[in-house]
Write a structure and sequence with these properties.
Blueprint: H1 2-35, H2 39-64, H3 69-103, H4 115-135, H5 141-163, H6 189-220, H7 225-237, H8 239-250, H9 254-268, H10 271-279, H11 286-307, H12 314-317, H13 321-333
Helix pairs in contact: 1-2, 1-6, 1-8, 2-3, 2-6, 2-9, 2-10, 3-7, 3-8, 3-9, 3-11, 3-13, 4-5, 4-9, 4-11, 5-10, 6-7, 8-9, 11-13
């Protein structure tokens, strides 16, 4: 009965998240419109930070306010699970969805992206996460602190570059009316902000309900804490990014859809990692270390495809999911 109840809660959480992401994406596009921001800044910074802030609280609370080693490990799992999930699962899912939408006649089966921006985002992540990976083998707290400060500085530089971009080719499609002010040609900043905050709160609520349902179901099915920390929890906390990107992809706003994910990847590979470097001894079990190696491998694979003829091939892109599936199978057997 408990599993059935929380399965229903799981479905409710998905519904809440999808409704909230409709509000949030609509509002965040209007923020970009009113401030004349590029799509890279809207998708890669505003949307990415907005949807990652709620989940970033998990490692902060677990590491700095937790009373046990187990809680610190949960925090590390949340830090490492997000980049792994985004690179090996979320982007392949977007590739599969693109092909599904094309089969349904909703759009063409090709990503329409600014590949220079894609390469830039992935390069930032590969560089930052590689530094964090090297720090695992250097047990110096001073070096960890220096690396953490460097990663924070790198992300601030990334944000500066994003806000200095311009959309040379124009925006993607038309901008729909603000849902909270459908009749207003140019809605006020207050109404836009209110809708964005409500949407963001809904995303946080949806993710919280998802985590609650996932944890209960996992415990009922005797799923190990490691799998919960590295796989189940990140799947829940990345739900807002996935929902936003799915919606933008359906609306043929590929640059916003992909920028939201790659921007989140850069954020997750710098700010939460800095928290881990400063708040823990950054000593990782082999199973956790493997997620870092696979995330860098997947991101490098995506970067190579973006550089290869400036084209992402959906059928090839979806192959990154093999790394995720292989890791799940590995955890099952260890």
């Amino acid at each position: 009965m408990t599993v059935l109840l929380y399965t229903l809660l799981f479905l409710v959480s998905v519904g809440v998240t999808l409704g909230a992401c409709t509000l949030f994406t609509n509002a965040i596009e209007w923020v970009g419109k009113r401030f004349n921001l590029s799509e890279g800044a809207v998708g890669g910074v505003l949307a990415a930070i907005g949807t990652t802030l709620p989940e970033t609280s998990i490692p902060v609370i677990a590491i700095f306010f937790g009373a046990s080693r187990a809680e610190a490990e949960v925090g590390l799992g949340a830090i490492l699970g997000a980049p792994f999930m985004l690179t090996t699962l979320v982007i392949p899912i977007l590739a599969v969805l693109l092909m599904v939408y094309a089969r349904l006649g909703k759009r063409t089966a090709a990503f329409r992206l600014n590949y220079q921006n894609v390469r830039g985002d992935l390069s930032f992540f590969v560089a930052a996460y590689s530094v964090a990976l090297v720090c695992v083998f250097i047990p110096s707290r001073l070096m960890h602190a220096v690396a953490a400060v460097g990663l924070i500085g790198l992300y601030l530089y990334y944000v500066k570059l994003k806000f200095s971009e311009t959309d040379e080719e124009g925006g993607e499609g038309g901008l729909e009316p603000l849902l909270f002010a459908r009749k207003a040609a140019i809605p006020s900043f207050g109404v836009i902000g209110l809708q964005a905050i409500i949407g963001l709160a809904g995303l946080a609520l949806g993710a919280h309900l998802f985590v609650l349902a996932a944890e209960t179901i996992a415990n009922a099915l005797s799923i190990s804490p490691l799998i919960l920390a590295l796989l189940v929890a990140p799947l829940a906390t990345e739900l807002p990014e996935m929902s936003n990107s799915f919606l933008w992809l359906y609306r043929k706003k590929d640059r916003l859809a992909i920028g939201n994910v790659t921007g989140a990847i850069v954020f997750q590979g710098t700010i939460p990692v800095s928290i881990g470097l400063l708040g823990t001894d950054w000593t990782l079990a082999p199973t956790a270390l493997m997620t870092m190696v696979l995330a860098v491998t997947a991101a490098t694979f995506l970067l190579a495809q973006a550089a290869w003829g400036a084209l992402w091939r959906p059928w090839l892109l979806s192959g990154s999911a093999i790394l995720y599936i292989g890791y799940v199978v590995y955890l099952y057997w260890v």
